[in-house]
C-alpha cells in the first residue's frame, strides 16, 4: 500500500512526483506502457520552458524531469492504468498487467490529446512544420506562409495569433461557415494576413524532412490542388484523457476533470488531478508542471490531515 500513486508521466506527473518524493512520500508513478514522457516527446525544440535559454529538445526535457523524480525516490512503473476505483477510503488502481495497487491518494495527470487529421505523414512531420500549438511553435514561423486547419474558436484564435509572426495565414475549413463565435470570426475576417480557404480539407502532407506543402481537396466537387506552405497548424480540438474516470469524478462542460477553485481537489476526496487533463485553456508544459506541484502539495496536506485525525481518534479512544 502506498501514500501516493501518480498516473501519467508528462510534466504534471513528474513534477508532482518530484515534490511528493522530496516530501518523503515515496510516490509510485505509472508512466504508461508506450506514451512515457507525455506530449513533449512528440516535439523537437522547446524554447519557452524557463531555465533553458538555448532551448531544449522535448524528449531531453522529459528525461531530465524523470531523472529528477527518480533521484528523490520515485518508483516509475512502465505500465498503463486500465481501471480505477475511488469509491473507498483506500484508492485502488489496476495496471495493464492485471496487478492491483492501493494508495491513500491518487494524482491523476493523464494529459490530453490533440485531435489529428488522421492522414499519412502528419506524425512524421510533427515538430518539422506540423504543429498543434501556436503558442509553442508560432515563433518559429516568422515571415513564413502557414495554414491553420479548423473552424472553431481555437482555430480563429491561433490564426490571429500566428499573424504576429507569419506573413500569410490560410485558414482551411471543411464547410462554408465557421463554428467560431461571431467576435472571433470577425477578428479573423478583419485581419489582412488571413485568407480563408472554404469547403476544403487536407488530403496529403508533403515534405521529406520538413513540411513543404499540402494537397487540398475540395469537399464539394472532390477536386485537388497543391498549396506550398512552411507550416501547418492543426486546431480541430483536444480531448482530455478522462475515459477511466467517467462516472467516478465530476467533469466540466469542457470535458476536463473538475477541481475545486485553484486547488487540484476533485469530487472524490483523496483524488487530485493536474495538468492538461484539468486545463481547457492554457495547456503548456510549465502550467502543467505548476499544476503538478499544486496536486502534490494538496495530497501532502490531505495525508497530514488524515494522519492527524487518526492520532486524535486513537488518543480519545
Ligand atoms: C507537438 C506538441 C508540441 C508542444 N510544444 C510545447 C512547447 O514547446 N512548450 C510548451 O510549454 N508546451 C508544449 N506543448 C504542450 C505540452 O506538451 C503539454 O501542455 C504538456 O505536456 C501537458 O502535460 P501533462 O503532464 O498534463 O500531460 P501529457 O504531457 O499529455 O502527459 C500525460 C501522460 O500520461 C500518460 N497516460 C495517459 N493515460 C494513462 C494511463 N491510463 N496510465 C498511465 N499513463 C497514462 C500519457 O501517456 C502521457 O505520458 C506541446 C504539445 C504538443 C502536442
UniProtKB/TrEMBL annotation:
FAD/NAD(P)-binding domain residues: 3-292
E.C. no: 1.8.1.9
Cofactor(s) required, per the database record: FAD
Record's signal peptide: none
Catalyses which reaction(s): [thioredoxin]-dithiol + NADP(+) = [thioredoxin]-disulfide + NADPH + H(+)
Membrane-spanning ranges: none
UniProt keyword terms in alphabetical order: Disulfide bond, FAD, Flavoprotein, NADP, Oxidoreductase, Redox-active center
Superkingdom of source: Bacteria
Cofactor binding comment, as recorded: Binds 1 FAD per subunit.
Matches recorded under NCBIfam families: TRX_reduct
Oligomeric form and interacting partners: Homodimer.
Family recorded in the similarity comment: Belongs to the class-II pyridine nucleotide-disulfide oxidoreductase family.
This protein's name: Thioredoxin reductase
Lineage of the organism: Bacteria, Bacillati, Actinomycetota, Actinomycetes, Micrococcales
Gene designation per UniProt: trxB_2
Amino acid at each position: 500500500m502506498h501514500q501516493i500513486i501518480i498516473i501519467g508521466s508528462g510534466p504534471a506527473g513528474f513534477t508532482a512526483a518530484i515534490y511528493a518524493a522530496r516530501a518523503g512520500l515515496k510516490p509510485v508513478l505509472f508512466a504508461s506502457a508506450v506514451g512515457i514522457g507525455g506530449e513533449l516527446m512528440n516535439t523537437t525544440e522547446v524554447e519557452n520552458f524557463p531555465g533553458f535559454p538555448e532551448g531544449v529538445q522535448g524528449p531531453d526535457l522529459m528525461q531530465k524531469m524523470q531523472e529528477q523524480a527518480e533521484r528523490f525516490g520515485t518508483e516509475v512503473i512502465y505500465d498503463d492504468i486500465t481501471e480505477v476505483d475511488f469509491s473507498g477510503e483506500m484508492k485502488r488502481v489496476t495496471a495493464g498487467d492485471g496487478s492491483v495497487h492501493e494508495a491513500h491518494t491518487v494524482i491523476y495527470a493523464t494529459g490530453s490529446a490533440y485531435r489529428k487529421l488522421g492522414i499519412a505523414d502528419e506524425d512524421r512531420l510533427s515538430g518539422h512544420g506540423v504543429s498543434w500549438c501556436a503558442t509553442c511553435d508560432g515563433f518559429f514561423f516568422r515571415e513564413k506562409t502557414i495554414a491553420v486547419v479548423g473552424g472553431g474558436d481555437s482555430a480563429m484564435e491561433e490564426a490571429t495569433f500566428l499573424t504576429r509572426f507569419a506573413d500569410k495565414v490560410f485558414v482551411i475549413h471543411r464547410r462554408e461557415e465557421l463554428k467560431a463565435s461571431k467576435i472571433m470570426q470577425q477578428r479573423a475576417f478583419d485581419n489582412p494576413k488571413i485568407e480563408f480557404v472554404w469547403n476544403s480539407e487536407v488530403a496529403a502532407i508533403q515534405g521529406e524532412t520538413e513540411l513543404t506543402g499540402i494537397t487540398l481537396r475540395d469537399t464539394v466537387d472532390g477536386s485537388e490542388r497543391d498549396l506550398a506552405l512552411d507550416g501547418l497548424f492543426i486546431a480541430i480540438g483536444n480531448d482530455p484523457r478522462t475515459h477511466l474516470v467517467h462516472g467516478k469524478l465530476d467533469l466540466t462542460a469542457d470535458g476536463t476533470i473538475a477541481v475545486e477553485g485553484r486547488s487540484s481537489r476533485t469530487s472524490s476526496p483523496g483524488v487530485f488531478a493536474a495538468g492538461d487533463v484539468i486545463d481547457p485553456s492554457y495547456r503548456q508544459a510549465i502550467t502543467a508542471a505548476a499544476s503538478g506541484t499544486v496536486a502534490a502539495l494538496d495530497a501532502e496536506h490531505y495525508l497530514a490531515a488524515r494522519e492527524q485525525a487518526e492520532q486524535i481518534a486513537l488518543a480519545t479512544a
